[in-house]
Specification:
Helix content is about 60%, strand content about 0%. It is an all-alpha fold and about 70 residues long.
Length: about 70
């Protein structure tokens, strides 16, 4: 059926996924990893990035305009 013994399942050591820390990856690799996500997850990540960039843009705008008062 599966051609695996219980021992091979318990002591399995081939290709076990490891934790990914995206901040440790290159910029190109970060985009590649995001593009590998399922579409719904990718949209969530992109929405978070959009929100953070918009927040920064407003902060920069207010900082610049309040500094001139």
């Amino acid at each position: 059926m599966f051609k695996m013994t219980i021992d091979s399942i318990i002591n399995y050591s081939n290709n076990i996924p490891t934790e990914i820390k995206i901040e440790e990856e290159s910029e190109d690799q970060r985009f590649k990893l995001i593009n590998e996500l399922e579409e719904e997850d990718k949209l969530v990540v992109l929405k978070i990035i959009d929100t953070m960039l918009t927040k920064k843009k407003f902060k920069d705008f207010f900082d610049k305009n309040i500094a001139t008062l």
